[in-house]
Amino acid sequence: MAEARRTNQPQTTIDAGEVERFSALSAEWWNPNGKFRPLHKFNPVRLAYIRDHVAARFGRDPRAAHPFRDLRFLDIGCGGGLLCEPMARLGAEVIGADASTTNIEVARLHAAESGVTIDYRATTAEALADAGEKFDVILNMEVVEHVADIGLFIGKCAEMLKPDGIMFVATINRTLKALGLAIIGAEYVLRWLPRGTHQFGKLVRPEELERALAEAGLRVADRTGVAYNPLADRWHKSRDMDVNYMVLAERVPAA
Amino acid sequence: MPERKTAKTARKEPKAGVGAACLDVLIAGAGYVGLATAVSMRAARPDLKVAVVDAAPAGVWQKDGRASAIAAAARRMLDRLGVWDDIASEAQPITEMIVTDSRTSDPVRPVFLTFDGEVGPDEPFAFMVQNRILNGALRKRAAELGIDLIEGVAVERFDTGPAATTVHLADGSSLETRLLVAADGVRSRLRDMAGIKTVNWEYGQSGIVCTVAHERPHNGRAEEHFLPAGPFATLPLKGNRSSIVWTERTAEAERLVKEDMFVFETELERRFGLKLGEIHVEGQRRAWPLGLTLARAFVAPRFALAGDAAHGIHPIAGQGLNLGFKDAAALAQTVVEADRLGQDIGALDVLERYQQWRRFDTVQMGVTTDILNRMFSNDLGPLRAVRDIGLGLVDRMPRLKDFFIRQASGLTGPTPRLLRGEEI
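The joint structure predicted for all components is written out below.
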């Protein structure tokens, strides 16, 4: 394995001390009971949502070994690669982008260890769009509540969507319930997330997201809430979009 | 069925980091739980590379003289896996079950509970099958599905890395796997190697297990008598034969299995009765110490326990095999669903779903059978009266009895799809 890791070492000039630091961070990102536990817990429900909609849209069998073969994915704001790796295992060609160089190094290290091929880039949606990149599927998960200008951001993402491409957006609603559960509950009471992870004012209401999508020439093809069951310690799809929700966006066909 | 590939062919996607030869699942233990787990995973997901390793030399499994009760749910699972057809002709349906509470010397034993209930129309609630028949059918199916079976080689040790576990075998070779499953029995060595502790209760009792031939047919009737020393069960086998599970204090059990056959058969006859004519013992008599062993955890990173390795329970309720099959079905479903989502099947958060699914049920069943055994394994007058009233009440309350039968059939609780007879 050490050998495999060497051969898969990303082409960067980073020193050993840095690698060690990233390695520790990588272990943290990928520890299901560590700091990123909420994301790990959240993963099955969003993975199933993505898999089923992509399979339906592109006529793939979701039970096949590699249903996403020959589909080009962008995971924007990919973090440690928690979504990129499953997508790659399902056969997709995946580009994982994150503005944080640290996250990208962490993600690269883990992918090399796991033996999955992912093209990780420390870059932004704007830079990718300006370079003319195109994708069948764009994953935009838990990102819009952190960006400076949602209209610009969604617009740049839309530019990168192929004509029959689809984009998934997951985020948190700006409601009192979300303030109570997602900020006070998750950050202050349960300490699932570091304090300050989410600022209430930056949370995005579904109608605001839909407006930004519409301005970018996209429309919502499906939407769902995601709710947490504390007894089962599990997330599930729900009609309630008051806190966490996901939407599937597609291009408005040219008239 | 999707196209099949044998486990030896590499997966199409290159696995640079973990090596192309890396297995997806290695199962230690080729008993019925290990084999059922392997077959369930591979049948649902032909792309998974699955292998089974067992310390016992080839052919030893054919000498297992024990028989097991296969509840309706486990039978549906075997049917779904394409194994039941090879077993059916050798399986004895239990069409009636009688539970009594009595002293051995009572001339007539009052019948308190009759489980003549069927789970569905024409579906007996259980079948008796000899272990070697079940094992042989599972082995055949495993071979058809391209599952590698490595026999006569023990697991020496294993090292769990971030992306795979390296398993070192006694012959000096080693295997890499994304997930290692320990189905190596109640005294699981792999469980110890993984550092998983157990909670144990000793009963000071042993179960004498043997097969008897009798003159007259049993008509598919199973009997469980709660004798002062513990439960004494007769379970119908194919032909005029029955399987005996006879509980005694350990010292007494060990004495009995070493006794002259004439003495043993005489003692057996006192309990078995003469209603089926003369009896004689076929094959080996063995005494198995009874205890309750529950693993404190069922999973660790890239590691899962299944069957008796996770929970050895008292055989009083005949649930050992059925709990084991529930593990196999639940673990296979967890792994297959995770693989279909592109998740790492050996990751702890994936395996914790299996643990959460199985532990409550297991602990509940373990504690229930423990209480049943403690309640019935004594000869105190007042307690006897209480449990007689209890059992009588059960028989008079159809809904409660129905619950009992369904519980005995392994149909309650969150049921894995295979146990409902569905595909994963």
